[in-house]
């Protein structure tokens, strides 16, 4: 835990404390999201921002059009149907192999206490790294005007660390449990209400250094466009529920522009 204490504020976030874990589990269960402000030390935030800025030149930039379900269109439903509504997302991304070996992000990602903590909060037996060399740790950059449009995640959960917030915009908004994947209810009417602005989403106020655990499979979410010259910079710590899983080749090509 000693090395970890340089990057994680273990007094604010005692990862191996049973009472702390239980309270985080409860928040996750109640809200579908857990935010831990002050998770990163101030020094770690500064260092990780510097590293991310140095790596920005290597970022792969995408501008994709997708539906909220992240699937191919269904031609039987027609272009105007909410299932086929096209939404845009744009970002720059760097991959695990582009992050230096001694980065605090790799220290956190690989740390057994951190993995055990996240697994306990998420109710998973264990968390596993991706089997491909790109997908485990990513850093996302959103410069002025870039946004992540409304979507449901394919993965059951996401773990993120905000490193730098923009001057304005870049707000994470969500509506909890808007669909029921397991029960097969896509809730077209409810989704249309959110996408067309008839239903107000919940906003998460996330400061740099905040750890976020989020269940995004049934909770629609987006990140509003960055306003101002300062980029939004976010690290994504991606884990699997099973060992030996690689991100699909199609997804790697879309998000990273290469397979390895
Ligand atoms: O940028 C964020 O805060 C959330 C990212 C997200 O929703 C995703 O990558 O699927
Ligand atoms: Fe997402």
* Mean pLDDT across all amino acids: 97
How would a crystallographer describe the biggest sheet?
7 strands, antiparallel
Order of helices and strands: HEHEEHHEEEEEHEEEEEH
Q: Please provide the count of β strands.
A: 13
The tally of helices reads 6
Overall outline: globular
Instruction: Walk across the major sheet and give the strand order.
Output: 1-10-6-13-4-3-2
Structural class: alpha+beta
CATH superfamily: q2cbj1_9rhob like domain
Low-confidence stretches: none
User: Number of folding domains?
Assistant: 1
Bound molecules: 2-oxoglutaric acid, fe (ii) ion
Which bin fits the share of residues in helices?
10-25%
What Rg do the Cα atoms give? 18 Å
CATH architectural arrangement: Sandwich
- Percent in strands: 15-25%
Distance between the termini: 32 Å
Keywords:
260 residues; alpha+beta; Jelly Rolls; 7-stranded antiparallel β-sheet; 4-stranded antiparallel β-sheet; 13 strands; binds 2-oxoglutaric acid; binds fe (ii) ion
Concise summary:
The chain has helices spanning 18-31, 42-55, 104-110, 112-122, 188-195, 249-256, and strands at residues 33-36, 60-66, 87-94, 137-142, 148-151, 158-164, 168-169, 172-175, 202-204, 211-214, 220-223, 226-227, 232-237.
Would you mind describing this structure in some detail?
- The chain has 260 residues and is α+β, with helices and mostly antiparallel strands.
- Helix content is 24%, strand content 23%.
- The protein has 6 helices and 13 strands.
- The strands form 3 sheets. It has a 7-stranded antiparallel beta sheet with strand order 1-10-6-13-4-3-2. It has a 4-stranded antiparallel beta sheet with strand order 5-11-8-9, with helices on one face. It has a two-stranded antiparallel sheet with strand order 7-12.
- It is globular.
- The model has no long low-confidence stretch (mean pLDDT 97).
- Bound molecules: 2-oxoglutaric acid (AKG) and fe (ii) ion.
- Fe (ii) ion binds at residues 151, 153, 158, 216, 221.
- 2-oxoglutaric acid (AKG) is lined by residues 140, 148, 153, 158, 160, 172, 216, 221, 223, 234.
